[in-house]
Design a protein that fits this description.
The protein has twelve helices and no strands. The chain is mainly alpha-helical and 407 residues long. The chain has two domains: 1-7 and 29-211; 213-407, no CATH class. Helix 9 runs antiparallel to helix 10. The longest helix has 30 residues, at 357-386.
Length: 407
């Protein structure tokens, strides 16, 4: 899918000599199709949320070096998002968006600083700045979209985003990690889907025909859940160094994501194939967590054992995915795609353990966008294979619950 996937599966044969630690792609540019524009807005806004959550938490408890690395990642995400806005709405609108977006990131950091220092005046000043930003964003969006999006609706959307980010850092600082991670996941899903609004607002009614059709909703839902999987694993890996309480909370949301993915696969492929997916996916998640535990425990034997298991799990997942799309996607490139995903997460946790936070952030960025490329490719193959039997409204992908790995 040119212009969308940073690392499409079809490219893996040609890139075997490029390692997960060195591969990098510049910001994507909007494709001609509305679906490409939608996918790009979704992925950048989703990543923004996860980065903002981690940045605010790092202000409260993290070392300065981690805060700096996350700030750099947020800046890069802002630049990519602003380029996309400029391409969709015009350079002037993109420039104004970037100014406003940076203002809200600064105010979120100030709010987190107030939380860290128990400074109610600082928190209130940040709230005031964020309220002003919300109104300014609403005005900007209404003008940029030529009235296709109302200012009040746009302002309400960013207020929800801001409220969720402030609430998660409040409860995180109070060590209510379960609630913090639950809010984080809701905030990601809200902002990921807000990408559709950002994209649609730039389109005339004629170009927006089919924008919300079931195939697009299905693609969007799978991309959201697989991107979320990547980001939640990163959180769980880092939480392993923060203590059992936070690790347990992060792990619960990884399991909730697995449940949602299983529900989606079961709705499309039937309960038998859904159960097969859950088993294969739970093995994959367990392998990543086993590697993380070995890193945290400085257990080289455990790390090597986990890597061998992950290689086997990658092949099994590839066989599963190839089978459900009637071999439209060959096993070898699928295996390479899953292995690349594992490599991003392995390299991420190794870098984080070594306190090389810039490298850890680089792996997060590469891994997130690679996973979304895999999602788009996989969903395309599922749609071609199973189109007559797909649900009219697409897959139901609501989260909740806990995925229990069959033993």
């Amino acid at each position: 899918m040119p212009g969308l996937s940073r690392t499409p599966i079809s490219a893996y044969h040609a890139r075997r000599n490029v390692t997960a630690t060195t591969q990098h792609h510049e910001a994507v540019t909007p494709g001609k199709a509305p679906r490409d524009l939608r996918a790009q807005f979704e992925q950048f806004l989703g990543e923004h949320t996860m980065l903002a959550v981690r940045y605010m938490r790092s202000v409260v408890t993290g070392p300065p070096e981690l805060k700096d690395a996350l700030g750099t990642s947020l800046q890069g995400n802002t630049e990519e998002l602003s380029e996309l806005v400029g391409a969709a709405y015009g350079d002037d609108a993109g420039g104004r968006f970037e100014q406003l977006w940076k203002t809200h990131i600064t105010a979120l950091g100030s709010y987190a600083g107030g939380v860290a220092n128990h400074d109610e005046k600082a928190k209130q000043a940040a709230r005031t700045a964020l309220a002003a930003y919300s109104n300014a964003h609403g005005t900007w969006f209404a003008q940029a979209s030529k009235g296709r999006v109302q200012a009040s609706v746009a302002a309400a959307g960013v207020r929800q985003h801001i409220d969720e980010l402030m609430r998660q850092v409040d409860v995180y600082a109070a060590k209510n990690y379960g609630e913090a991670y639950r809010i984080q996941r809701v905030a990601y899903e809200h902002m990921f889907t807000a990408g559709a609004t950002m994209a649609k607002g730039s389109l005339t009614p004629e170009l927006a025909v089919g924008f919300d059709a079931p195939p697009e909703k299905l693609r969007s839902a799978f991309a959201m859940l697989l991107g979320e999987h990547m980001e939640l694993i990163v959180d769980a890996q880092r939480a392993a160094f923060a203590g059992q309480a936070e690790f347990k909370a992060a792990g619960a949301e990884v399991n909730a994501n697995t449940t949602a993915l299983t529900q989606a696969m079961g709705a499309i492929l039937g309960p038998v194939k859904g159960a097969e997916f859950q088993t294969a996916w739970a093995n994959h998640v367990d392998g990543l967590m086993a590697y993380t535990s070995a890193v945290a425990g400085m257990n080289d034997v455990g790390k090597e054992s986990a890597r061998r298991n992950l290689d086997a799990f990658a092949n099994r997942l590839a066989l599963y995915f190839s089978d459900v799309v009637n071999n439209q996607l060959p096993v070898e490139p699928l295996t390479q795609a899953v292995t690349m995903h594992d490599s991003h997460l392995i390299n991420q946790v190794n870098a984080y353990a070594a306190k090389d936070y810039a490298k850890a952030q680089e792996m997060e960025d590469h891994g997130y966008h690679q996973m979304l490329g895999v999602a788009n490719t996989l969903v395309g193959a599922i749609q071609r294979t199973l189109k007559p039997g797909l649900p009219v409204g697409g897959s139901k992908t609501g989260g909740g619950g806990t995925a229990h790995h069959p033993r």
